[in-house]
Amino acid sequence: MEQQVQKKRIFSGIQPTGNLTLGNYIGALRNFNLLQDEYDCLYSIVDMHAMTVRQNPAELRKACLRTMSIFLASGLDPRKNIIYFQSQVPQHAELAWILNCFTYMGELQRMTQFKDKAAKHADNINAGLFTYPVLMAADILLYQTDLVPIGEDQRQHLELCRDIANRFNGVYGDVFKVPEPYIAKVGARIMSLNAPESKMSKSSPEGCVFLLDRPEDILRKFKRAITDSDTERCVRYDPEHKPGVANLMQIYGSAAGKTYAEIEREFDGQGYGAFKAAVGEAVVEKLRPIREETERLLADKAYLESVYRAGAEKASYIAGKTLRKVYKKVGLLAK
Ligand code: TRP
What we know:
It is built from 14 helices and five strands. By secondary structure, the protein is mainly α. Helix 8 packs across helix 9 (155-172), helix 10 packs antiparallel against helix 13 and helix 11 packs across helix 13 (272-299).
């Protein structure tokens, strides 16, 4: 008889900026289909984390819905994955309070993201900003998560999450699974179009393609993309000496479904101009259905609501089990 193997669980928290980039798409979103069959995946749009810096309420709400719509439009299947808003699953805040009591001031003071954000928002260094990593630990630990896909910038937070879990388990027995970072098998790091030595980032919008950008803006950004200053002027994959060209080849390869050898042949004897135009057009065509589907979803409020309500219900069911166990262990009376 075939044995049912328990899938490993992945938890990912996504900031509701509503402004996802081509880097996010190639690096993460397009892999949903691969992940959803192999793992049990939860995607939480972390609207409570977003509040650690001041938000305009109407814009925050819009950004939350836009982020969810982009996820769905990129191919995330809400029947196979749990997608929900963090604030709609009260167990996150409840567990975060308890974990606050198992986290030391000194640990939080060492967090580099806290130091950076405190410097950037010097007029609003609130307690939520300080305990941000504790809420993140609660997000992860509530679901007995095996794996957390994270970039370099979140590594320290995940390490703290593991420390908190181990500390708690040390006192009360095995309550939490201690999560590991998830490193994608097909790692793609998309670089800025106008500064190929740094990662594509919202903070430099001319080098960054947003998934909802208009086609004319996308074409312009690619037309102005930095290639390389070498004299060869030919399309060849050589990330060390030609990082700009290599980045464009990676983007073109994933947008048009071509290998590097095919791309080199296609542009053999042509200059960078024709190549950049082709990359721009391939990206426009790749993103067109995502943009259109996002807009369609945003207009269908009833459907979106049905997705996030069902997501919150499923998440809350799993989270509730962990939280009840925690209440019992620490001596609170379960509801
Ligand atoms: N802090 C993460 C970020 O800024 C977002 C996040 C919140 C997260 N909770 C999480 C990521 C849990 C992974 C797991 O990107």
